Amino acid sequence: MAILTPLSQQFTTGFVPLYPAASFTDSRARMEYHHTSEMNGVVADYHSMCNEPERNGLCREEKHSEDAADSNNLCHIEKAYSTILSELGEDVDREGLLRTPLRAAKAMQFLTKGYKETTQDILNDAIFDENHEEMVIVKDIDLFSLCEHHLVPFYGKAHIAYLPNKKVVGLSKLARIVEIYSRRLQVQERLTKQIASAISEALEPAGVAVVIEAAHMCMVMRGVQKMNASTVTSVMLGRFHDDPEVRKEFLALTMKK
Question: What broad class of enzyme is this (predicted)?
Fold first, then answer.
């Protein structure tokens, strides 16, 4: 008769035998017994589970290396922000600024996390065969990015359309593509083109259209300080570029207020 031990006890106390401890002293073979337990019809091989770290060691080592690199980068960025604050005449040791360099470093890593992401990562298993050839539009996608010239934000909306060529993509993935490329140091013109090109390469559709409307803080907070100015950029590929009627339909559906 098998004696079942709660999983919590097994993992907190280490190897828990099914047999009384004394019986294991009879032979060395008992010491190498592969401990299995059947619960709810599922067999769990705890010997294999104990060896799992060995099998996945390389994976964890790589993850640890990535974490160490991120931590090291964070440290350097934090020190840089501390230097900037000091050069601006601030006292980095005063209460309000004690953790500001670290917070700013973490914020900058988040705002530029798109450098570590690819469209292949997010589109995995999200492209489907579908007999659909009519226009697909996702509009008013919020975007936030950093102007690469002054490191201040620009923000607005992205409107995306594509003409499927027997393949469609999960709608949320279009917003994720916007997120990947906007979470980098950018100019709006390049951002628009990168989004359109990524969709075109992934889906091979009959056409792709992307329009971005954005306000740039480098024009609002500094420089000319024009608070009501906005910038509109567009990229038209395939039939959106070649067929005026298709382009007109897209613009009518997305740009009307």
Answer: hydrolase
Q: Domain 126-254: which CATH class?
A: alpha beta
DSSP3 helix / strand / coil % (the chain, rounded to 5): 50, 20, 30
pTM: 0.73
Residue of 1 and 132 predicted with greater confidence: 132
pLDDT computed for residue 66 by the predictor: 65
Token code pair at residue 81:
């922000």
Whether 188 is a known active-site residue: answer yes
| Residue type, position 194, single letter | Q
pLDDT one-digit tens code per residue, 163-175: 999 999 999 999 9
Task: Give per-residue pLDDT as tens, 62-92.
Answer: 556 667 777 889 999 999 999 999 999 999 9
218 catalytically annotated: yes
Catalytic residue check, 159 = no
Query: What's the CA dihedral at 249, 251, 254, 257 to 10 degrees?
Result: -110
C-alpha gyration radius of the chain: 28
DSSP for 36-99, please give it.
Answer: EEEETTEEEEHHHHHHHHHHTHHHHHHHHHHHHHHHHHHHHHHHHHHHHHHHTT--TTSGGGTT
Catalytic pick from 35, 179, 213, 216?
Answer: 216
Q: Which CATH superfamily is domain 68-116 in?
A: GTP cyclohydrolase I, N-terminal domain (1.10.286.10)
